[in-house]
Amino acid sequence: MNGLRAVIGCLVIACASVVSPAAAVTPGAAAKPNWSPLPVPAAAPPVTVSDLAARGPGEAWATGYEHAADGLRPMLCRWDGAAWSRDTTFPSAGEPGRLGEVQFVGDEVWIFHDRAGAGEILRRSAGGWSSVPLPQTLWTYQDFTAVPGAAWVVGEDDTGLKVLHYDGSGWTTQSSPDGVLFLMGITARNATDAWAWADTSTGTTVLRWNGTMWRDAKVSLPPNSNVHTILLEPSGRVTIGGSQHTDGAARTYLMTFNGHAWRTAYPPLGDTYTEAMVRGPDGALWLPVRSDRAFQSKYARVDGIRTTFSYGPERTNAIDVKPREMARAGFSLLSFGTVEIYGSKPNLMSERLGG
User: Which is it for the CA torsion 280, 267, 232, 99, positive or negative?
Assistant: First the structure.
């Protein structure tokens, strides 16, 4: 009898060893994300990537600038759902300058353009490109955002902080609350709901525009922290990403507002700059992180209390792969950034998850 049991036991083990590996996956375990490389148009390295925005799977725009011998040169790339291409049809494309934030506003594309110090908004509609000049020149342009019926440009001139507001027909200068020294970033959900993060005499503060004035949003940020980005969603959900400095070290925090209360979490991201964070098609937060592999990019997926990581495709002879910006494109995620191949300067790279 003992011999028969031994034979049966061996047969069970043998059968288990030939079961498909997929059948042995722990229930609830997710398959590893499969990032693929996307060909990118030619650029003159070194290149800096500024922003990326997508509207569905068939249209995305990436902005930035090349570092030419005679100064900065604006760079604009377009994704048509199948390939990236270079766009040089916008006004002053061949002149010195840089392209900054890009936004979809209704049926149009709006891009901030710094023409060697003179700021303007480029607008692309079905009829082609046009431009909206700013009412004054600033010596630094910090951020730009646009929604139907409104746009903001924040920066500084020799008199200090400037908040320039466009209502569709003209520009006005808006006042910020007392104590605000510098606006580091701005974003908006609609013309009467905009958010900004500012440096004040008491530390970092979140501000909110209610259609009439800017006010302190009364967000209790973690002590000794700063803000990198604010992600506004149509549902009303708000996510703030930043860093908290404690005992000489920094760690990433995420604050989420569900319409009633704020919740603060510290996912295991180390000291990650969260400016490129997006809400993915799977409902989780995605953002690029510093990679421990020189030849591959690395991405974090934060879903509630669970954080997982995935790597981009291997790149031959790469010594630094940096996805700078991310965007949701339908059921896919797009990333756009730079890759430095041994012996060359950083040039463009793009990757996609899904699709």
Answer: negative
What contacts 24, CB < 8 A, 6 or more positions away?
none
Count the neighbouring beta carbons within 10 Å of the beta carbon of residue 4. 8
Burial class (CB in 10 A: 0-12, 13-18, 19+), 282: middle
In terms of Cα–Cα distance, which of 35, 17, 9, 26 is closest to 349? 35
pLDDT of residue 23: 32
Q: Which amino acid is at 34?
A: N
Q: Is the dihedral of CA 83, 89, 93, 94 positive or negative?
A: positive
Is pLDDT at 21 greater than 90 in this prediction? Answer: no
- The span from the CA of 30 to the CA of 15, in Å, is 25
Rounded to whole angstroms, the Cα distance separating 136 from 179 reads 24
Answer yes or no: is pLDDT of 80 > 80: yes
pTM: 0.89
